[in-house]
């Protein structure tokens, strides 16, 4: 904004202060300094640039410059005090505005991810942050070894990488409950894939889950909950992949939709393993390794650091206790489904 566009109200009393200082040589009083700070705050709230405001002060200084050469040092000292106080007030207003904006942003994010606000009103607020909730959106959630908030270096590093790569693409990056979140339009898979790559590197090997694109104002919270559930599944199933997509794991929520039916299957199929010496844990680990290795006994034995003979003995013991043979295709599906259910239900650590 040009200097001539700065209203004189923001220089109120400035010429008088310079005239008085040039005569007396005094420093500005506390009230005078505070008045400059207040004017700086008002100018910041009005949207004027600090550079133009300082220019306006310098122009007013030239206009009020004293004729006596001996007064020059006094006036320059006063100008320094005035500009410093004015800038302090300006920066104070700017910091307050930033804090208020951060508070509004955090409130919006909380409402967005929990669906606590009226959806119509939420959609209006979303436009301020670059989101059009009438479109489909997908959410990726990154979880690292530490909890993060928006002031930490890790979220800033990931955000800078996304902006450098994609610019302004209606992307919202934030944190929630110590995790990093990226909300992106549902048709921009490359954004979330790049976020996952950057978050994995920045969190030193964290895990990222990506929810499916969901339409409408409530789509963000649905995709967010899918991503969270996927992280939970990954922990319970001990999945090793650093990036997991909810669309690839839909079978697991289906299996646990009827929790009581799944609990009955686990109890019926695997309950007899509790009669094994030392409990069911060792034989459960045997089944997990067997199914995870594609039912190849040699590979499963290697994973458990066992000889093939010792591993085969364990499979025979499972057959004896349960009546189901893991190597029999007629029994395998039932046992594998029960094992998945046991891991999802945290059995045998938790009673069913």
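Sequence proposed for the structure above (352 residues):
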């Amino acid at each position: 904004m040009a200097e001539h566009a700065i209203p004189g109200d923001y220089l109120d009393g400035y010429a008088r202060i310079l005239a008085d200082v040039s005569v007396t040589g005094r420093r500005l009083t506390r009230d005078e300094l505070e008045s400059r700070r207040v004017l700086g705050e008002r100018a910041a709230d009005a949207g004027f640039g600090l550079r133009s405001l300082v220019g306006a002060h310098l122009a007013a200084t030239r206009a009020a410059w004293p004729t006596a050469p001996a007064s020059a040092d006094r006036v320059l000292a006063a100008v320094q005090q005035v500009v410093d106080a004015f800038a302090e007030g300006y920066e104070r207003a700017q910091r307050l505005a930033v804090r208020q904006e951060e508070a509004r942003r955090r409130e919006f994010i909380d409402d967005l991810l929990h669906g606590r606000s009226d959806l119509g009103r939420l959609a209006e607020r979303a436009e301020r942050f670059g989101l059009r909730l009438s479109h489909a959106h997908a959410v990726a959630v990154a979880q690292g070894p530490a909890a993060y908030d928006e002031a930490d270096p890790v979220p800033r590093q990931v955000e800078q990488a996304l902006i450098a790569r994609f610019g302004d693409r209606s992307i919202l990056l934030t944190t929630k409950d110590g995790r990093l979140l990226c909300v992106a339009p549902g048709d921009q898979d490359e954004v979330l894939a790049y976020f996952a790559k950057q978050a994995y590197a920045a969190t030193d090997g964290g895990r990222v889950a990506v929810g499916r694109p969901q339409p409408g104002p409530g789509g963000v919270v649905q995709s967010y909950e899918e991503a969270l559930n996927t992280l939970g599944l990954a922990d319970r199933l001990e999945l090793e992949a650093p990036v997991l997509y909810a669309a690839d794991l839909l079978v697991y929520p289906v299996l646990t939709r009827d929790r009581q039916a799944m609990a009955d299957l686990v109890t019926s199929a695997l309950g007899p393993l509790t009669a094994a010496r030392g409990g069911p844990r060792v034989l459960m680990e045997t089944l997990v390794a067997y199914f995870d290795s594609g039912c190849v006994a040699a590979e499963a034995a290697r994973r458990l650091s066992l000889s093939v003979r010792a591993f085969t003995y364990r499979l025979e013991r499972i057959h004896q206790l349960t009546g189901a043979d893991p190597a029999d295709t007629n029994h395998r599906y039932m046992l594998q489904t029960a094992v998945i259910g046991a891991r999802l239900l945290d059995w045998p650590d938790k009673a069913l």
